[in-house]
Each structure stands twice: as C-alpha cells, then as structure tokens.
Amino acid sequence: MRGSSIIQDLQGGLIVSCQAPIESPMHQPLVIVAMAEAAVNQGAIAVRLDTPAHVEAVRQKVPSPIIGLWKQQIPGFEVYITPQFDHAAAIAEAGADIIAIDATLRSRPNQETVATLITRIHAELGKLVMADVDTLESAIAAADAGADLIGTTLYGYTAATQHLKPPGFDLLSELVEKLEVPIICEGGIASTQMAKQALDLGAYAVVVGTAITGIDLQVKAYATTLKTQKTHKRLRFDA
Predict the structure, then answer these.
(1) How far apart are CA 93 and CA 101, in angstroms?
(2) Is residue 108 packed enough to be buried (19+ CB in 10 Å), middle (13-18) or exposed (0-12)?
(3) Is 202 in a helix, a strand, or coil?
(4) Predicted pLDDT at 91
(5) What pTM was computed for the model?
(6) Which tens digit of pLDDT belongs to each residue from 173-214?
(7) Which of 11, 60, 73, 79 could disulfide-link to 102, CB 3.0 to 4.6 Å?
(8) Which one-letter DSSP state was computed for residue 81?
C-alpha cells in the first residue's frame, strides 16, 4: 500500500519545513523549491510546505514525500493550518502526499470537525493525514478519528498551551506512551542534539524548520540581540 510505504519511509528521518513569511522575499516558489532540493540533497527524508503554489512547484522537482498544508486566517476562528476541506483538496491537487491539518479541539467553519475532515481527506482525496495537535486530548481525538500521523506542531501556539514553550518533549513522551499512531516531533527543534533527543524519546520522525530554513527569523534574532548589546554598551560608556 503506497500510504504505508510513505509512512515507513519517514521513520527515523528528518523532515525539513521549507516555509517563509508571506511578506518575505524568501516566499517566492523558486526560493522554496531551492530550499526543498537542498534539504533533500543533504539527506532530508521529506519536506513540509505551505500553500498550493509551493507544493506544486516543489512537486515538479522533488520526488520525496511532501507534507502539505495551507495556512488560512478565517475571521472568528483560531484554526489556521488547513482548516477546511477545500483547503485540503487544493493541497492534494497540488501534489502533496500527506495533508497536515489543525487537529486541535477548537471550532472550525461550516461545522466541520477533525473527524469529518480526516474522513473526507481519506475517502475523497485518497491522502494521508498528519494531525497537528497541542495537547494529549486533541491527539487522542485525532487518533480516534483515523489520523495517520500526529505532530506536536501546535504545542505552545494555542490558548490552552501558550504558557508552554516548544519543543513539547513532555507531550511527545505522553503521546508515544499512550498512542499507537506514529508521532512526529515538530516545533522548537533548534539543534542536532535536540533532534536526537526527540528520537530517543520515541518520535517517529522530526520536523525542523526555523533552525534550518528560517532566515528571516534567524537574522532578526541575531540582529535584535546585537542591537540590544550595542545599546547596553553605549549606555555604559555614556554613564
């Protein structure tokens, strides 16, 4: 079965999230393709991409598995990672092998639920589903709904977990212990040591984004730190 084969291919591997803020020059499909090709050339087992345009562009150049999603801000709702079936359909048509969805317990438009979304993606699109969760409760619900993979992606990014900081190693350990579904560690992995720790804790695979492809956030962090240090020095010498 092709779906089973794709999941097996991910085991123990690195998935690189090739994304960029929409306002960044890095958001161009050509740049995202270059990121994805470079990642796969150096050993990434799969890539994770946002928007149909990026999935379609990368699909033409990269044969490795693509986890696709479409971030959408919908007024009145907090879910934003592939929140509705039509978004999933567009990602599937663009060529993704796996559709990542927001699988938190938050409400979504048109009375869709995680369960109905997963069921339709399987039945109508014939695609695997990666459920991005924030808590054990949402992970259990996603597993019961038939999710093929579960990611710790939204740990620290919802109202229920905003006091927590990724990576969610505690959540990862809980999910590995309580669920049979392969668990993907995603969010906050900033070093090779942290990636190894995730696998040691039982992660099926590890997603790394900002630490590898997040030039905008990385440069901003460095620049901000150095600017702050420069200000402190100036104040010290002016005193």
Answers:
(1) 16
(2) buried
(3) coil
(4) 98
(5) 0.93
(6) 999 999 999 999 999 999 999 999 999 999 999 999 999 999
(7) 79
(8) B
Structure tokens at 21: 């803020």
Each residue's pLDDT tens digit, 53-62: 999 999 999 9
H-type helices in 83-209, by residue range?
A: 85-94, 114-120, 136-144, 169-178, 192-200
User: Could you tell me which CATH number the domain at 2-238 has?
Assistant: 3.20.20.70
Tokens of 89: 């359909």
List, for residues 102-139, the tens digit of each pLDDT value. 999 999 998 899 999 999 999 999 999 999 999 999 99
Which residue from 219, 147, 210 is spatially nearest to 18, judged by alpha carbons?
Answer: 210
End-to-end Cα, the chain, rounded Å: 71
Burial label for 215, CB within 10 Å (0-12, 13-18, 19+), is: middle
Task: Let me know: does 108 contact 84? Beta carbons within 8 Å.
Answer: yes
Could you tell me if 48 and 207 are in contact, meaning their C-beta atoms sit under 8 angstroms apart? yes
Token pair of 104 as six digits: 């938190």
